[in-house]
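Course assignment 3, question 2. Fill in each field.
Student: A.L.
Task: Predict the tertiary structure for the chain below.
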Amino acid sequence: MISERTRLAVLEEEFLPVRAKILEIAASLDRIQRAEGEGSRDPNWLQIQSALETLLEDQAGRAERVQMLFSRPYNDQWRETHKHSTS
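Answer field:
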């Protein structure tokens, strides 16, 4: 029987990598904020804000929801749209 790891065990293992990623994101956001010009309504910035809000939700499935924020909706005509051949 495979025993499940406890939440504290997973937290212990993940803490430093998650901390590093959060610091990297914070630094990126600081660089964006310090840059000249307007961009608060840019679609990329709005996607980033939505993704950060999703991360703060207290429910499972955040990774999938964030991925979907940055994904295009499925188009069953994609071959025609992007002129891909079937061969």
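Instructor remarks: The mean pLDDT is 90. The radius of gyration is 19 Å.
Grade: pending
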